[in-house]
Design goal:
The complex is a heterodimer of chains A (195) and B (188). Chain A is 75% helix and 0% strand. Chain A has 195 residues and is mainly α. The longest helix of chain A has 32 residues. Chain A starts with 11 loop residues before the first helix and ends with a helix. The model of chain A has no long low-confidence stretch (mean pLDDT 89). Classes of the chains: A mainly alpha (195), B mainly alpha (188). Chains A and B meet through helix 1, helix 3, helix 4, helix 5 and helix 6 of A and helix 1, helix 2, helix 3, helix 4 and helix 5 of B.
């Protein structure tokens, strides 16, 4: 598994370069940071060789499987870059630089925008924006679930997984069940090899 | 249904811990849990308010859930509230994900681990779909009216989920139509 891990000594100029790129990715990440993945991969893996393809993909997989926002894959990427460059304390530096870089610009913008929007919430244009975007936002959520489900594979082969997705959606839509019970059920059924 | 009085966060600590608790339940994405905790359990906002806030969070750059936490925290307690909510959302999960990343490097290729993750992934997809279906009921009161809202929603689903068109085009293309129609129908 762990073949071909890149090893570099990162200079301060490299860390600055990483930070500046994360700031840029942050501003590009309309619709979620997932939309910047191809560019991030090109820069970190292909151009700088700071982490391997496998490490990049594992960072995304772990962040998706773990509780918490998926944006934490950026923390894992920073962690891997740091570990490749020397060890624990450098890895923590990598986490810090990556996370502050990816969050600072977008968060500042979102906060200012939200305050402005809230102050002017009675304006016809603001109300029209929120009302007009609402069906699209809801459809995007359902689409996200659909895309995650279809990543499971062809229906003919992976139908038990599709069934699990459909049953979960139905249960949660109609009844009040704690989310963690459903996740635990999925974990058990998966672990037993039934789905 | 759902006529219990609205509520709001009591303090910065309340914000921080509420978001920590919901983040730690959010496997495969936090949005389903945010709706569950903040709208259904804590009643800090209605379904309609949730969708509206989220429309803003979605079109801004950055992770949607982080944006949403900043906006909700900021609404009640200004900048400190925004920081408390987003820190709650990120801090504990950050530590956890680093530990799991370490474990994954060692055990990630174990077949049982892969199977368990696959099972949880199937459920997580269902959670997100269910959240969307629940929120769809709030569109009945949308200024667009049910027919227009339905057509826009279906078009968005077809474009994104089935045809896999780029998000930016679909979101801003259909969004422009939605905003235009809503503007016409709202009284000045």
């Amino acid at each position: 598994m762990m073949i071909e891990i890149p090893s570099h000594v990162l200079q301060w100029s490299d860390w600055l370069d990483l930070f500046l790129h994360q700031l840029l990715f942050s501003l590009m990440s309309v619709g979620g940071v997932v939309s910047t993945l191809p560019e991030m991969h090109r820069y970190l893996v292909d151009q700088q060789h700071w982490l391997s393809d496998a490490q990049f993909n594992a960072s995304i997989a772990v962040a998706q499987a773990a509780p918490g926002p998926n944006i934490l894959f950026v923390a894992l990427i920073g962690w891997n870059i740091g570990m490749n460059a020397g060890g624990l304390s450098i890895a923590l530096l990598g986490v810090l630089i990556s996370m502050v870089g990816i969050l600072l610009p977008s968060s500042t913008l979102a906060y200012l925008m939200a305050r402005w929007g809230h102050r002017n919430r009675e304006l016809r244009s603001i109300r029209a924006f929120k009302q007009g975007m609402s069906p699209i936002v809801v459809a995007l959520l359902i689409s996200t679930g659909w895309i995650l489900a279809s990543a499971q594979g062809e229906f003919a082969r992976a139908w038990p997984l599709w069934l699990a997705t459909a049953v979960t959606a139905l249960i949660l839509w109609r009844w009040k069940v704690h989310l963690l019970w459903l996740l635990a059920a999925g974990a058990i059924l998966g672990g037993l090899g039934w789905i | 249904m759902e006529q219990l009085p609205p509520s709001q966060p009591r303090s910065l600590a309340d914000l921080f811990f509420t978001f920590t608790v919901l983040a730690l339940q959010g496997f495969g994405g936090v949005m389903a849990v945010v709706e569950r905790e903040l709208v259904e359990k804590k009643r800090w906002m209605s379904k309609e308010e949730f969708i509206e806030e989220w429309a803003v969070a979605q079109v801004m750059p950055g992770p949607n859930v982080v944006n949403l936490s900043l906006m909700i925290g900021g609404r009640y307690f200004g900048l400190p509230g925004a920081i408390a909510a987003s820190a709650g959302l990120l801090l504990c999960p950050l530590v956890l994900v680093l530990l799991l990343g370490y474990g994954y490097a060692r055990y990630g290729s174990h077949p049982t681990v892969i199977n368990v993750l696959r099972g949880m992934g199937a459920v997580a997809a269902g959670l997100i779909i269910a959240t969307g279906l629940k929120l769809a009921s709030a569109l009945k009161r949308n200024a667009l009216g049910i027919p227009v809202a339905t057509v826009l929603g279906l078009a968005c689903f077809i474009g994104i989920a089935l045809l896999r068109w780029p998000l930016m085009y679909v979101m801003f293309g259909l969004g422009a139509i939605g905003c235009f129609v809503a503007y016409r129908r709202l009284k000045p």
